[in-house]
Specification:
Length: 1294
């Protein structure tokens, strides 16, 4: 039972009593001004207090707030004091007067209860218990449920606890009839009147109990500050995004023209037009304010009273936040307080300015406007405390509500005279800001310089004083720019916590010694030798945060940092008590999306960034301690399930996940140790939920998630870990589908996330490459990621590269092979099934990683009812071909080719049966020449015979299955003869001696490139293309040719770039790169740079080349011989030069070649192939790893572990590359490894007799079968195998 005490009235205290105590310069005072009809200014003198008036208060002050018709003060012991309207006896039960003077609150339930912060609405009061343990609310009326407990009646509600689930409370904010509460988890709760949508619930009905604001963009959003207007609400995320909802009359929410016709906004909406990171917000009667980094103030809403600081003639109201530009550009806003129709602005040097309605003295300008004329230019408010005329006052806390203001000030020695200010107020101009000087004459500069000196001196004294004012208060954690601090379960008054979630002006620049905040203030440069002003510099100073009404300063964000997690893990290894702390901390973080989105970030950055590398290292340490991990694993899994359900339960809820602050925790969740083993049921389900959440997201959310991964997870180890976990999960989904004989939606959702990571990987490489070509060095900005900073690297880097060497080609951090699904390489999905999926869903072409970000979901009937599913285009592995191993792609292509061949055979059979009028069920005999493309050649005239046969063949003939017959030899072609045929034919066609290819390119670049001076007929180039097409169409292992990748890009009509020239003409490439990287030694204007460039290189848009012994010239563009290559147009010259070398100069030779390829290969799957995949299929694998060949070998008559077989493999392993190629040709008919490596071959070694014998090993190349006798010793084994290899050309009957 709470006891009651008589109120203690401090009104009798006088300034004379205070002077007797000898206050020091750091002493705190309370000043009030404005409307005083209900004694809300804590004064009995008049109905209006036109200028700041000192309120005697002897106790050390902790916090304060201005309410609708009253004011509250909190002393250092947590006691509440107040004055003003006593309706419902909410301030004092002993006094029945309508108005109560400043006295300690006399309510039985509040006696001896320590509070930390409070706020007042029209009919209710909310106060935070010390340490943020709970919110107590009471008031004279609960008509709309604004008190959060009790019945919704127009009668007094006594103090009671607002139920919030036991979470610590950081801040409270009261509107006219609604309430907002911010917890230490960054979650916003609301209750009360919702007629104008101020609760953000998405509906208009009032709420009697606190409910979390989850509507629209606040879902999973970690919020660091809130503000409440009479019928509107605002929230500020840790990343500096501002969200508004409620009454939008006259654009007060600042949501832009799109919402001008919306009188109410029922759910939180992100403010779209802010040009930077917000660090403070404020809500007024009909206007709102946002303070950006570096103290830039933006206002929106009604301006009929000039409360936006703009001329009422120019701006009546605006729905877009626009900056209040001070011509005195040194003025930076630290905090702002908004009343019903007025605005108060506190600068970083402690000066106070006001604008707006002054009918009741709201502006503190000594005289109210009796005629109602408002002040629409911010005017400095003169602050004085009675008895301290020799000192200045600096504001360190500000609260304004309706028509009155309460300010907390400190005194300091008066150094600067008032006359040195520019007419006592700053000037405003839309064209001056951020250090850009007012463009006037020198004389006009002088007053501004005097003001600058005055403000610099004043700021120095202010800083000195500010750094001491909090030392007498109970210790509180200094503010930190990072939300990356942990919150213990039961904080006490003496604990130190972060000020991260305050909605006030806590600087987010970084942590500084002694818990103070570093901030840049202007200072004057010294005068140069010429006596002129050299401009202004910035000086970094240390400030304490201003006192924020309604904010519990000792309560920090409960987020978990990497350092704190490491400490918890190390402590848990020492005892069971610490183990429980580790469990509870991890469970709390993973079960709350808003908390996880703010956890594990780098400390000290104004823009939160995930410390992915540090987190991964700590998680690896946790996994390494198996016993410790076993005790926390299931707690983390259960918490992850709970958190994912709060993130979004369906497509509609996920539609609002579009901000980075809503998604950062997903990266942390993907790095968590619970997802290491996807084979376990619980981790598998957690990963499925994550992938489904990504699939549910709108396109904007997926793009933002990818940008987050690019910025925060660009470290190679981190990205490899993410890719590995997602790929392993995708393999697991395929494996489960193989076991269940059913393809589930989880497969395609997993591929979507893997594609997103692919795009991340490529984007990182592109940005790093771009950083080497940028124009200037970036300004240091610790809020940027590494990738962002590198992308701004500039001209010094380009100059160095141009002077010394070329930059190496930037490759993605993760090789593409690590994205490939191994389950497909193992054929867990049969190629025949995938071919059907491709034909049904993805014939239109493959999906690009960027396209995946934009894919919408569709409502469809599934086995589980109606669900949102990915479009059919996604439901094919070959549609995501960048994730498919090339070996599997080749097998699916083989299926497609086989289907085409069988289809043609069936067509022939039907025609023959129709011509012969054969009845169904009767046998018919068909000429094999009608079913197959039979190619008869002589081994010594293979080129001539092939040319003649191919020229006679029709396109239909070429698309039949190829059968090769060597004249004069016995042999039935089951694949081996064809492989031998292509090997011999390529030795004649794809050589420099044939005249088709350029000998100089072959000598310099060691690749085959088309000879632009060739006199050979176009049919010969066409023949080469047909041969290449037949290799692909008939599923041959490949050709032993050295085509550069640019050839396959041209076949696939992919765009060419400068790097492609490097493969063919490396010397020309180096010259062109040097041309692009050239920079002048000093800064010059464009005309001078062009002149120096032209004199240095002396180039025009003409190319000169040799053709059959004669020198030829060609213009690269119209009028090229008269056009000089300059610094400005050099990129165009390089582009045209590359186009000439790679395309136009060889067009006569390459076009027949490409048509020859397309004559044979022209199918949907072939068209979907990427050039790199086509290159592998045509050329095969270059590496010959015989260990892979042994791994998949089978034996007939031998044991795998026998000593003889071991000797056989040792012999093969010791072969050089030439001998290995000969062995492969002997056994398989081709000296190339198939796509996917030698593991794709199924070599069969069959015992073929034993000693005594002189029989050579023999092979059936069609079946990869080696008939191997068992020789007596290893030397004989080597001699017989080498002999067989060198005498293997020709075929007997197979």
């Amino acid at each position: 039972m709470f006891s009651s005490t008589a109120p203690l009235n401090l009104a009798a205290s006088t300034a004379e009593d205070r002077r007797g105590q000898g206050p020091g310069p750091e002493e705190r005072y309370i000043l009030t001004w404005g409307a005083n009809a209900n004694r809300q200014c804590l004064s009995d003198e008049a109905r209006v207090i036109p200028s700041p008036k000192h309120v005697p208060f002897l106790r050390p002050l902790r916090s304060f707030c201005a309410g609708w018709d009253g004011s509250l003060l909190l002393d250092s012991e947590g006691a509440l004091w107040g004055g003003g309207s006593n309706r419902g006896q909410c301030l004092s039960e002993e006094l029945s007067d309508e108005h109560v003077p400043l006295s300690r609150l006399d309510v039985a339930e509040l006696d001896a209860v320590p509070f930390e912060a409070a706020d007042m609405g029209r009919d209710h009061i909310m106060a935070i218990l010390e340490g943020g343990r709970a919110v107590i609310s009471w008031g004279p009326s609960n008509e709309f449920g604004q008190i959060g407990h009790g019945l919704p009646y127009r009668s007094r509600v006594r103090p009671g606890v607002v139920h919030l689930g036991g979470v610590l409370v950081k801040q409270v904010a009261c509107g006219e009839h609604h309430s907002l509460v911010l917890t230490a988890h960054g979650e916003v709760y609301s209750f009360g009147c919702n007629l104008h949508g101020a609760l953000g619930s998405g509906r208009c009905g009032s709420q009697e109990q606190a409910e979390r604001v989850l509507g629209n963009h606040l879902r999973s959003m970690p919020v660091r500050g809130i503000a409440a207007g009479p019928q509107s609400s605002m929230a500020l995320s840790i990343g500096g995004h501002v969200f508004c909802w409620g009454c939008n009359s006259r654009g007060r929410l600042g949501l832009g023209p799109a919402y001008d016709q919306e009188p109410t906004v029922l759910a939180p909406v992100s403010v779209p037009t802010l040009p930077g990171v917000a660090r403070a917000i404020a809500a007024g009667g009909q206007h709102s304010a946002v303070i950006l980094r570096r103290g830039r103030l933006f206002l929106a809403g009604d301006n009929r009273s000039g409360q936006l600081g703009q001329s009422r003639k120019d701006v009546d109201w605006t729905s877009t936040f626009f900056e209040l530009p001070f011509q005195d550009y040194m003025l930076r806003v630290r905090t702002v307080a908004l009343g019903k129709k007025h605005t108060l602005i506190l600068s970083y040097d402690g000066e106070l300015y006001a604008c707006g309605c002054n009918a009741e003295g709201q502006l503190g300008s000594r005289a109210s406007s009796s005629d109602g004329t408002p002040v629409d230019v911010p005017t400095r408010v003169k602050l004085e405390v009675e008895g301290t005329s020799d000192k200045d006052c600096m504001v360190v806390g500000l609260s304004s509500c309706h028509d009155h203001t309460v300010a907390m000030v400190i005194s300091m020695p008066k150094i600067i005279e008032e006359t040195k200010m520019i007419q006592g107020r700053p000037q405003t101009s839309a064209s001056t800001r951020d250090g850009r000087r007012w463009n006037g004459d020198a004389a006009a500069h002088q007053p501004l310089d005097a003001a600058a000196a005055a403000r610099a001196n004043r700021a120095a004294m202010f800083i000195k004083t500010m750094n001491t004012i909090h030392e007498e208060l109970p210790p509180a954690q200094p503010p930190d720019a990072s939300p990356d601090l942990s919150m213990p379960p039961r904080p006490s008054t003496g604990q130190r916590h972060s000020e991260v979630l305050t909605s006030g002006c806590t600087s987010r620049v970084g942590r500084s010694p002694r818990g103070r905040i570093s901030v840049a203030l202007p200072r004057l440069r010294r005068t140069g030798a010429s006596g002129g002003d050299e401009g202004l510099l910035e000086e970094v100073v240390l400030l304490q945060p201003v006192v924020q009404p309604g904010v519990a300063a000792s309560v920090g964000f409960a987020s978990l940092s990497v350092a704190k997690l490491l400490d918890l893990i190390q402590a848990a290894q020492g005892g069971p008590g610490a183990m429980e702390d580790l469990r509870s901390s991890l469970s709390a973080a993973f079960s709350s999306p808003s908390l996880l989105n703010a956890s594990f970030c780098f400390p000290g950055l104004y823009k939160p960034r995930l410390d992915a590398g540090g987190l991964l290292k700590v998680f690896k340490g946790l996994i390494g301690s198996e016993e410790l991990f076993a005790q926390v694993e299931m707690h983390m899994v259960n918490a992850a399930f709970e958190g994912l359900s709060l993130w979004a339960n369906d497509h509609d809820e996920a539609a609002s996940l579009i901000h980075r602050d809503q998604l950062r925790g997903l990266a942390a969740l993907l790095l968590s140790p619970v997802l290491v083993d996807p084979g376990k049921p619980q981790p598998y389900e957690v990963m499925c939920r994550i992938m489904r959440l990504v699939a549910w997201m709108p396109a904007e959310g997926r793009r933002e998630l990818q940008e987050l991964l690019i910025d925060d997870c660009s470290e190679e180890e981190v990205l490899r870990s993410l890719v590995s976990r997602v790929r392993l999960h995708c393999d697991e989904t395929v494996l489960r589908a193989h076991q269940m004989q059913r393809l589930s939606p989880e497969i395609w959702e997993g591929l979507m996330l893997l594609q997103l990571l692919w795009g991340t990987n490529e984007a990182i490489a592109q940005r790093l490459a771009k950083s080497l070509r940028s124009s200037e060095w970036p300004e240091a900005d610790f809020g940027q990621s590494l990738a962002q900073t590198l992308s701004q690297l500039g001209k010094p880097a380009a100059s160095v590269l141009g002077r010394f060497t070329l930059a190496p080609q930037v490759r993605p951090p993760v090789p593409s092979s690590e994205f490939h699904l191994q389950s497909l390489a193992e054929e867990k999905v049969p190629p025949e099934l995938e071919f059907r999926l491709f034909v049904e869903n993805a014939c239109a072409g493959p999906i690009t990683p960027s396209e995946v970000l934009e894919l919408p979901l569709y409502a469809a009937r599934t086995d589980y009812g109606f669900e949102y599913v990915l479009p059919s285009k996604m439901r094919s592995f070959m549609a995501n071909r960048n994730l498919v191993p090339v070996s599997y792609t080749r097998k699916v292509l083989q299926v497609e080719n086989h289907h085409a061949q069988v289809y043609l055979q069936h067509q022939v059979a039907r025609r023959v049966a129709a011509d012969l009028e054969v009845l169904p069920g009767h046998e018919i005999h068909i000429d094999p020449a009608l079913l197959f493309f039979i190619l008869k050649v002589h081994r010594d005239r293979i080129l001539e015979d092939t040319t003649a046969a191919l020229q006679k063949a029709t396109p239909e003939d070429l698309r039949r299955q190829l059968k090769v017959v060597f004249e004069g030899e016995q042999g039935v072609d089951e694949g081996g003869l064809a492989r031998e045929f292509f090997r011999l034919l390529s030795a004649h066609v794809f050589t420099v001696e044939g005249g088709l290819f350029d000998p100089l390119v072959a000598q310099n670049a060691r690749v085959l490139w088309f000879n632009s001076a060739s006199v050979r007929e176009s049919t010969e180039f066409w023949l080469a293309g047909v041969i290449l097409g037949l290799v692909v169409y008939n599923n041959m292992p490949g050709l032993d040719v050295r085509f550069p990748p640019v050839v396959f890009k041209k076949i696939k009509n992919e765009p060419l770039v400068l790097e492609d020239l490097r493969q063919v003409h490396p010397d020309t490439y180096l010259s062109l790169r040097s041309l692009l990287s050239w920079e002048p030694e000093e800064e010059l204007d464009e005309e001078e740079r062009n002149a120096i460039f032209e004199n240095t290189f002396c180039l025009d848009f003409v190319v000169t080349y040799e053709m059959n012994g004669a020198t030829e010239t060609r213009e690269l563009c119209e009028g090229g011989k008269d056009r000089v290559v300059s610094y400005k147009n050099r990129e165009e010259f390089v582009r045209l030069y590359c186009e000439w070398l790679l395309t136009q100069s060889v067009e006569r030779q390459f076009e027949p070649f490409r048509k020859g390829v397309r004559r044979v290969c022209d199918s949907p799957l072939f068209n979907a192939l990427h050039s790199a995949e086509l290159e592998l299929i045509v050329c095969g694998e270059q590496a010959l790893d015989f260990a892979q060949l042994r791994k998949n070998a089978h034996y007939d008559g031998y044991q795998e572990d026998s000593s003889y077989i071991d000797s056989f493999w040792k012999l093969l392993m010791n072969f050089d590359l030439v001998q290995k190629k000969r062995f492969l040709s002997f056994v398989t008919g081709s000296d190339l490894a198939p796509v996917g490596g030698l593991q794709e071959l199924q070599l069969v070694i069959q015992r073929n007799g034993d000693e005594p014998t002189e029989r050579l090993p023999t092979a059936h190349t069609c079946f990869n079968l080696l008939l191997l006798p068992e020789y007596g010793d290893s030397s004989k084994l080597e001699r017989m195998i080498v002999t067989a290899m060198h005498n293997a050309e020709g075929f007997g009957l197979e």
